[in-house]
Amino acid sequence: MVARRKKKRQQTNYLQEALLLAVGATLMVCAMSVGYGFFARRADAVPVLPGVRIEILNGTGVSNLAKETARALMIGGVDVLKVGNADRFDYKESVLIARTRRGNIEDLATRLHCRNVIEQLKSGSLVDATLIIGADYRRLNLGPKSGLNN
After folding, report:
1. The whole model's pTM is what?
2. Checking CA distances to 33, which of 44, 59, 129, 150 falls within 20 to 30 Å?
3. What is the pLDDT of residue 6?
4. How many domains does one find in the chain?
5. For 79-87, what is the mean pLDDT?
6. Is the Cβ–Cβ distance between 86 and 57 less than 8 Å?
């Protein structure tokens, strides 16, 4: 009778070890998946420009375009302070307007693939630049996950 109890205990121990191994492997796969998702999103995003604060204005009339653009840029680490509509909705090309000398606006324009950069400095401006989105918004580099480059 003693031999039977030992066999049963050994089988139970093997079962527990196998279950523990399966749970551990599942947790490891979940952790790797979360980590990959985070790093893949950061790699696809517009490169970070620390300290550059911008406002985004919709110059096309396409519904929620400024909000979606802001979301895509914030994923890339750009500090978006304001989102709204431009003074009109017939901008053919996007324009990046420098409002202060702080921050590297030319570098931001290059990374976004925005060809039109102008300087309209405002003393006491809260933002370093204003991005007015034009009809060429699909050409802007907002990262592949933005859904705006299709």
Report:
1. 0.65
2. 150
3. 55
4. 2
5. 94
6. yes
